[in-house]
Design a protein that fits this description.
Belongs to the PEP-utilizing enzyme family. Its EC number is 2.7.9.1. This is Pyruvate, phosphate dikinase. The protein has about 900 residues and is an alpha/beta fold. Helix content is about 45%, strand content about 15%. Strand 1 and strand 2 form a beta hairpin. Helix 5 packs parallel to helix 7, helix 21 runs parallel beside helix 24 and helix 28 packs across helix 29. The radius of gyration is 34 Å and the shape is elongated. Bound molecules: adenosine-5'-diphosphate and magnesium ion (2 copies). The site of adenosine-5'-diphosphate (ADP) has 18 residues, from strand 6, strand 7, strand 8, helix 10 and strand 12.
């Protein structure tokens, strides 16, 4: 059988279905699904993504069977509609719409009103008895077709200011000026007819080709343009940002036109089944009477709220669909509820009303920002619409990150100078310097500057600059405009429809409520309320502790995940913070930070300079009370939870990097000659300190250090135990590469610990284990695992030693590795699963082969990275440990890992 390239939908029956997204694209699959659900959808058909791939690989030609299939589908549509494509008496008009697997807002193009030609126009006028409507549709067809098919898809690169769309719009403005009207609706049928002729002349002059006056030529032109636009510049750049593979291809949907611009009983609009900015469970949307779909999305007119609930202070005076067409609103409301229930997710819908009849043109899973994603997931889970696993998957780690983002300080906001109000398209607060073009935003963003991109409206050409900006502000457009959609997708602060802004792009200034804001001036946006302020206002961190939806989501994530989550923290305050973020222990307490306090560092230096063992012991023991106090506070803050404390790790010379003055002072303090200090410092110098005298190697040459630290830990633990505090210290020996190193250190630790416990006559349950961060430790993990009670992978050093890259020097070449794609990612940020990951897996397997209960965690930077967390789950680790602020993200990512790898 020949491959099927075209799938029909119409009159309650479709060949496709929602789960066929890969083949039919998102839009096509959902049009089919809606049709099958009995929802009114204008009939049409979908040309598959496989046809796109064929087209790309075969010199822009179609599979031979495609034309036949397409003609059959047109015949079906004609039968349902009772009209004929290209018919002079009763012509059928079509739209050509692209639709990839994943929605790519605005990236691909749509051509409406296909089939209007000198042959069909008279019949269309007669049928509708509305000449003005027909010429309005015609001028829209010409504009879209010239822009999308004849210029963009054809790869024509016009000079600045010579873009065909701009030229045609200028001709339209001229016509309006001549007629003395401001809106398109002020132009008469004759004006529009004349304008169409003018458009065609401009096209011929500018593009050297006539606008096609043949219905089928228009149709094929539209289809080819969709396929070509898949490899257009903008689509390719969006795909790169969003990581969408080029092989996916796009489908093409050809569909009967329905008209929202056929008078005052016609309308068009878009909606979300829940509020995409807050997550609130209310139908939310915008509509325009007597307009074609693109008018709402393009932000040419500011649209009306769809219902009474959606009205804000700023839109209260506008008429809602609920008021104007209550019956149709009711039907639409039922459909949106039906769709959300059917898909069990918030839907983003498009509809058109043609002379009192409602048609659905699109449904898809709606984009939402982080706070909305959290609210919806929790609400839908609590109402039983989705289960817990689905609920956690509904929030991406990056979206959770948005909840941890700043807001404008309300105190500062009270006294701030308000410049303008707009629509709150992307919540949160941001302050930045004003720029007017996407290129500038990108250039300054790369320099690390905070910029706010200010535009009349944005288009897909601006995405790179929108990405680089901290916030986006537009003068035009509604909550579903391009700027709003893109910003929401990225969780960016954004205000749209800020009509008070008079933006002069040439002069690079904004005139607004008596102020002049120039390029580079600071402004602050409150994207939650839609307010723009002069100057840089202070921002504050959000209060997660009183955010019920967030807390509930974390609770669900905790039920779903298998991995434990700990935090890396050295100080009691950080430990406390980690605890409130939900950490279940400390995975890494580094002790070296505890030595830099002025009094302590003196004792440390004395120890380093000591000549005899006794002197050294005396010096190091001065540190004991300090360390004991540190551990006491940390263990107390983390009562009931495990705390992994790593013994001293860095090379000693880090404690004696001294200036001449400091050497002189130290010599006086310790009463030793300066010469001696200098000689000692020289002797500590290492050519390659990262591979030098550090980690357990210190404890082996200076066992007093290990003794002192073990004593401090166990004494603190014993004191707390006496007080009735439940403590779980885990003593971690760093940088082990052979089991004998481990045994040497473990013996010291246990001996001291037993001594202390005997002295104090208490029992403390403590563990001794090791940090696995040298390849040899992984290779011999069965030997080490037979002795150690736990492993914690130190993946920073393990990455360093596996690659042979010095983390401190990698900055010199890593950027080139990334830009040349030699490495897909920075291995210090995201674990190199295929290389370093093998060593981790080997460490786990070998360790557990001799000790099935071996407790295993990770405490490198990777512990907070979602894809590394997924790896840790698969590798069978017990927990990940990350910085306190990453703990919520790690909890969510661990839940994802549990679901994905089920
Ligand atoms: P996008 O993917 O950018 O949303 P669409 O294919 O949805 O593009 O088309 C853009 C606009 O054109 C939509 O707002 C839709 O309402 C309108 N449109 C598309 N097809 C039709 C049609 N058959 N009849 C009426 N309007 C249409
Ligand atoms: Mg659409
Ligand atoms: Mg290390």
């Amino acid at each position: 059988m020949e491959k099927k390239y075209v799938y029909f939908f119409g009159a309650g029956k479709a060949e496709g279905a929602a789960q066929m997204k890969n083949l039919l694209g998102g839009k096509g699959a959902n049009l089919a699904e809606m049709t099958n659900l009995g929802i009114p959808v204008p009939p049409g058909f979908t040309i598959t993504t496989e046809a796109c791939t064929y087209y790309d690989q075969n010199d822009r030609t179609y599979p031979s069977s495609l034309e036949n299939e397409l003609m059959n589908c047109i015949k079906n549509v004609e039968e349902i509609m009772g009209t004929k494509f290209n018919d002079p008496v009763d012509p059928l008009l079509l739209s050509v719409r692209s639709g990839a697997r994943q929605s790519m807002p605005g990236m691909m193009e749509t051509v409406l009103n296909i089939g209007l030609t000198s042959n069909t126009i008279p019949g269309m006028i007669k049928k509708t008895n509305d000449e003005r409507f027909v010429y309005d549709a015609y001028r829209r067809l010409i504009t879209m077709y010239a822009d999308v098919v004849m210029e963009k898809a054809a790869g024509v690169e016009p000079e600045e200011g010579k873009e065909i769309r701009g030229l045609l719009e200028a001709a339209m403005d001229e016509a309006k000026e001549k007629r003395g009207v401001e809106l398109d609706t002020g132009l008469t049928a004759a004006d529009l007819k004349q304008l169409s002729e003018r458009f065609k002349e401009i096209i011929q002059n500018q593009l050297g080709k006539p606008f096609p006056d043949d219905s089928y030529e228009q149709l094929w032109g539209g289809i080819g343009a969709v396929f070509q636009s898949w490899n257009g510049k903008r689509a390719v750049s969006y795909r790169r940002i969003e990581n969408i593979p080029a092989e996916w291809g796009t489908a093409v949907n050809v569909q009967t036109m329905v008209f929202g611009n056929m008078g005052d009983d016609s309308a068009t609009g878009v909606g979300f089944t829940r509020n995409p900015a807050t997550g609130e469970n209310v139908f939310f949307g915008e509509w325009l009477a007597n307009a074609q779909g693109e008018d709402v999305v393009a932000g040419i007119r500011t649209p009306n709220p769809i219902n009474e609930l959606g009205k804000t202070e700023d839109t209260a005076h506008l008429k809602s669909l609920e008021e104007m067409m209550p019956e149709l609103y009711k039907q639409l409301d039922e459909i949106q509820i039906n769709l959300e229930t059917h898909y069990s997710d918030m839907q983003d819908i498009e509809f058109t009303i043609q002379q009192g009849r409602l048609w659905m043109l699109q449904t898809r899973v709606g984009k939402r920002n982080g706070p909305a994603a959290v609210t919806m997931a929790v609400d839908m889970c609590e109402s039983g619409m989705i289960d817990k696993e689905t609920a956690v998957m509904r929030v991406k780690p990056a979206q959770l990150d948005e909840l941890l983002h700043p807001m404008v300080d309300p105190e500062g906001e009270k006294i701030a100078v308000e410049l303008a109000k707009g629509l709150p398209a992307g919540p949160g607060g941001a302050a930045g310097q004003v720029v007017f073009t996407a290129d500038e935003a990108e250039a300054l963003g790369e320099q690390g500057k905070k910029v706010v991109l200010v535009r009349n409206e944005t288009s897909p050409e601006d995405v790179h600059g929108m990405h680089a900006a901290v916030a986006i502000l537009t003068a035009k457009g509604g909550m579903t405009s391009h700027a709003a959609l893109v910003a929401r997708g990225w969780g960016k602060c954004c205000i749209v429809g800020c009509s008070a802004l008079q933006i002069n792009v040439l002069k690079k200034e904004i005139h607004v409520s008596g102020h002049v804001i120039k390029e580079g001036d600071w402004i602050t946006l409150n994207g939650t309320k839609g307010r723009v302020y002069k100057d840089q206002l202070p921002l504050i961190e959000p209060d997660l502790e009183s955010n019920d939806k967030y807390l509930k989501l974390m609770e669900i994530a905790d039920q779903v995940r298998k991995l434990g989550i700990r935090a890396n923290a050295d100080r009691p305050e950080d430990a406390q913070k980690a605890r409130t973020f939900g950490a279940e222990g400390i995975g890494l307490c580094r002790t070296e930070h505890m030595f830099f306090d002025p009094e302590r560092i003196k004792a440390m230096r004395e120890m380093i300079l000591a000549e005899t063992v006794d002197e050294r012991r005396q010096a190091i023991m001065k540190l004991l009370p300090f360390q004991r106090q540190d551990f006491y506070e940390l263990l107390e803050a983390m009562h009931d939870l495990p705390v992994t404390i790593r013994l001293l790790d860095p090379p000693l010379h880090e404690f004696v990097t001294l200036t001449e003055d400091q050497i002189r002072n130290l010599a006086r303090d310790l009463d030793v000659p300066e010469e001696k200090i200098k000689n000692r410092i020289d002797s500590l110098h290492e050519l390659n300190p990262m591979l030098g005298h550090r980690g357990c190697r210190l404890g082996i040459t200076y066992p007093e250090i290990t003794e002192m630290q073990a004593r401090a830990i166990i004494e603190a633990a014993a004191m707390l135990t006496e007080k009735g505090v439940n403590v779980h210290p885990e003593i971690m020996i760093p940088l082990i590469s052979s089991v004998n190193e481990y045994k040497h250190q473990e013996q010291i630790v246990r001996k001291v610990a037993e001594e202390v416990l005997k002295e104090k006559n208490v029992t403390v349950k403590y563990l001794v284990g090791t940090m696995v961060e040298i390849p040899r430790a992984c290779l011999t993990a069965d030997r080490i695992g037979a002795e150690a009670e736990f492993f914690s992978f130190g993946t920073n050093d393990l990455t360093q030693t596996t690659f042979g890259f010095s983390r401190d020097d990698a900055g010199g070449f890593l950027p080139d590795y990334l830009s040349e794609k030699i490495l897909p990612e920075d291995p210090f940020q995201s674990l190199d699963q295929i290389g370093v990951g093998q060593l981790v897996q080997m460490g786990v397997d070998k360790g557990r082969s001799v000790n099935p209960n071996l407790k295993i965690g990770i405490c490198g930077e990777h512990g907070g990275d979602p894809s590394s967390i997924d790896f840790c789950h698969r590798a069978g680790l017990n927990y990940v440990s990350c910085s306190p602020f990453r703990v919520p993200i790690a909890r969510l990512a661990a839940a994802h890992a549990a679901v994905v790898n089920k």
